[in-house]
Every structure is written in C-alpha cells, then in structure tokens.
C-alpha cells in the first residue's frame, strides 16, 4: 500500500511542528525545511485544519500549530484524515465488480491485514516519531543553542 503525498506531507508538517520552537512554523518555512512545494503544502495544511490536526493564524506570531498534544496524535489519525481510500483490493471498496466477491476468502484476509496495519499506526504517536528531536531539528535546520552544546 502506498500513501499519497498529502499523507506523507502531513506527517512531515507534524514532525516539523513537534520539534520547532514554540511548536509552530510558517508554511513557507516548513516547505523549505522539507524541500517540498509550498503550494502543495498549502493544500495539505488546509486539509489538516479541516481534520482538526492543526490550526493556522495570520500576522505576527501566526503560522501553523498543532491543535492537540503530539503525544495524543497517532499516525492512524493522520492517515485516516489525509487518505480517502484504504481499499487495497476491490472487494474492500464500495463498488464490487469482482466475479468471485463474496465466494472467496480474500476479502476477510485483506480486511484483517488492514486492521493490523491500523493497529500499528494507532499505537505510534507524533511524539514517538519525533523521539530523536535533536536529530530532526538538525535535519530540518532548526538547531538551537542547547542542541549545539
């Protein structure tokens, strides 16, 4: 299963915010740190706002910030908010044109695999993903004086 860039970028936004000073940043700074398109990131952040993962504000001291504590945001929350389709096979989706749908065992196996996949994602929080916060700050160009010493 491959996720869209929207899901990937949403995780990157949350990682950036988790390690940034005051846990906030501008879309431009986040896009620059990750070397991704600002225009694309604008759309991702809009979707994240609608999902209740982040909020935005304008003006001095504005930008993007997490709405919830990063210890409570799971990777499963992010994937469900950013992806529209988890039907890894047709029979898990709304339209079923497979001739053997309902008479083969594939649907239950793939449904169980998807449940297991989300069990793993639901166990991992943004804090877990950012456990190496000093390394992340370095990779994103956000080093502080305390990190350098």
Automatic annotation (TrEMBL):
Its cofactor is [2Fe-2S] cluster. SUPFAM superfamilies: Winged helix' DNA-binding domain. The keyword Cell wall biogenesis/degradation does not apply. Keywords: DNA-binding. Gene3D superfamilies: Winged helix-like DNA-binding domain superfamily/Winged helix DNA-binding domain (1.10.10.10). Pfam families: Rrf2. The keyword Disulfide bond does not apply. This is Rrf2 family nitric oxide-sensitive transcriptional repressor. It comes from Pseudonocardia parietis.
């Amino acid at each position: 299963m491959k996720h869209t860039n929207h899901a990937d970028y949403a995780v990157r936004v949350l990682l950036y915010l988790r390690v940034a000073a005051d846990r906030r940043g501008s879309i431009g700074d986040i896009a620059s740190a990750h070397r991704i398109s600002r225009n694309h990131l604008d759309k991702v952040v809009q979707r994240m706002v609608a999902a209740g993962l982040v909020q935005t504000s304008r003006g001095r001291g504005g930008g993007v910030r997490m709405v919830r504590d990063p210890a409570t945001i799971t990777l499963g929350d992010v994937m469900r908010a950013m992806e529209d389709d988890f039907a890894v096979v047709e029979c898990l989706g709304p339209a079923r044109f497979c001739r053997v749908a309902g008479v083969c065992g594939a649907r239950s196996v793939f449904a169980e695999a998807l449940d297991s996949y989300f069990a793993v994602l639901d166990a991992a929080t943004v804090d877990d993903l950012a456990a190496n916060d000093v390394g992340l700050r370095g990779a994103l160009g956000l080093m502080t004086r305390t990190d350098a010493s």
